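Please check this.
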Amino acid sequence: MATLSRPEITKSVGKDIGASARAVYDAINKRDLDKAVAQFADDCEYVEIGLGRTYRGPSEVRENLSGWLRAFPDALLEVTNVVANGDVVAVEYTARGTHSGPLVGPDGSTLAATGRRAETAFCDVLNMRNGKIVRGRSYYDAGSLLRQLGATPGSGAAQLVNRKPGEGTPLWMLGGLYTIKASSKETNGELSVLEMLIPPGGQAPPHIHECGEAALVLEGSIRWHVGDDAVDAGAGQFLYFPKGTLEWLENVSSEPARLLTIYAPGGMDEFFAEAAEPAKKRELPPRSDTPPDVARLMKIAERHGLKIKEPTST
């Protein structure tokens, strides 16, 4: 068995078929699907073991690759090992990308974009003939991939969530009390719901969600900054921010403000769970004179489909 990372062996065994196989992954990274598909024989068969699907012929292989790139437009494949033996090549690689488009799941259903980053290890076993791929089997943990995206394979439906007043997971962050009323896991990735208690003068840094956000003010007054505009909202006022909206809020009143926020699809609860600290009481945290660590929040946000911008000094 020969490994392409060892030139003294690949000189005599498997060099050409290994290079032909690797050309597929290089072409995908360059978004040259014509070149990638050209490495497959006209009578090829490619089986995605992770999802139980079979693709026959270069056109179906191309359709499969296009589907993955629609779901993960920024995907990059890092090939870590290529092993050749006779007419068989095994390629190990790690795929990383942001779920920014529809992904077809194992049961044929479509998972809408979650904005989450995913990292998945693959191993493709390829049979070669005259330098072309005639048969391929792609092995990866589909369950791990879907869990990273906030979906549970085979769950079928979200579970009933019944939270009474005062229930939910309480968190302290940015001087406020954030209570997770429904998590992405509980809603099968469909929603994240949080109740927020914002102190007087409390605010969030400017940010952009890779999901829709709806907010209903329950008590107090909130000023939302939306792009270059400002919207003042009192109790009973409802707002919806489409995916990609630059916005941030501040409590402009002298009393705490309470609001209910819904994110769809779900996943934002996981950002709050990682970025915040567990609340010791279901009330606002003790006042702190230490400024928030925005750099830390920005790093955590990147893992959860959220872009935080540092506030502009005035």
Summary: The chain has a mean pLDDT of 86. Helices lie at 7-10, 15-29, 33-37, 57-71, 142-148, 268-275, 294-302.
